[in-house]
Write a structure and sequence with these properties.
Structural class of chain A: mainly beta
Oligomer: heterodimer
Distance between the termini of chain A: 31 Å
Number of strands of chain B: 9
Helix content of chain B: under 10%
Largest sheet of chain B: 5 strands, mixed
Number of helices of chain A: 0
Order of helices and strands of chain B: EEEEEEEEE
Mean pLDDT of chain B: 90
Distance between the termini of chain B: 38 Å
Number of helices of chain B: 0
Shape of chain A: globular
Order of helices and strands of chain A: EEEEEEEEEEE
Structural class of chain B: mainly beta
């Protein structure tokens, strides 16, 4: 158990819908990262927040957005969902900006 | 970020020592080398991290030659439960930005 929690564990929705994935970092960690893992793309970095501020962006679509709240939990919002958005979404956290990342168990999203 | 190259897959038997080598010819002076393990449908799990020479913890050893252009993850006495994908990453100590994962090495341990 990494100490990072993610909800929900599974999510099934339809194309065109919007969903929100939630992540709670390890206690004391200030940085949160979001990753997408699909069968054909491997593990892709989406976005990073540090102490509430966006820090870095990776391959995140404009339909996707995220935020980190004052209590340091983070939410990833996925809108106008497409079949290709079906994937595992992982959240990771680290103490600071240059610390080891610890991953949560992931949210499996299935878009039908 | 430095690009890494590692075997697509490997197999071994229970009780053997397994060595997975990763090439990172363009590693920068400030880069660390980090290995993660991932089981199906689970998040990657940190195994070990090093900068140079040798690092050992309770699950693995990491060997880094002087030129730092490659590294070897050593798993002693593997068991069936070590069957997983192993990722080698090079970059900032933990990654100020997100980590760049390659395809990883699929390690299959047989009885």
């Amino acid at each position: 158990d990494s100490g990072v929690t993610q909800t929900p564990k599974h999510l099934i929705t339809a194309t065109g819908q919007r969903v929100t994935l939630r992540c709670s970092p390890r206690s004391g960690d200030l940085s949160v990262y979001w990753y997408q893992q699909s069968l054909d793309q491997g593990l892709q970095f989406l976005i990073q927040y540090y102490n509430g501020e966006e820090r870095a962006k990776g391959n995140i679509l404009e339909r996707f957005s995220a935020q980190q709240f004052p209590d340091l939990h983070s939410e990833l919002n996925l809108s106008s969902l497409e079949l290709g958005d079906s994937a595992l979404y992982f959240c990771a956290s680290s103490r600071g900006l240059q610390e080891t990342q610890y991953f949560g168990p992931g949210t499996r999203l299935l878009v039908l | 970020l430095a690009k890494t190259t590692q075997p697509i897959s490997m197999d071994s038997y229970e009780g053997q020592e397994v060595n997975i080598t990763c090439s990172h010819n363009n590693i920068a002076t400030n880069d660390y080398i980090t290995w993660y393990q991932q089981f199906p449908s689970q998040g990657p799990r940190f195994i070990i991290q090093g900068y140079k020479t040798k690092v050992t913890n309770e699950v693995a050893s990491l060997f880094i030659p002087a030129d730092r252009k490659s590294s070897t993850l050593s798993l002693p006495r593997v068991s069936l439960s070590d069957t997983a994908v192993y990722y080698c990453l090079v970059g900032g100590r933990g990654g100020a930005d997100g980590l760049t994962f390659g395809k990883g090495t699929h390690l299959i341990i047989q009885p």
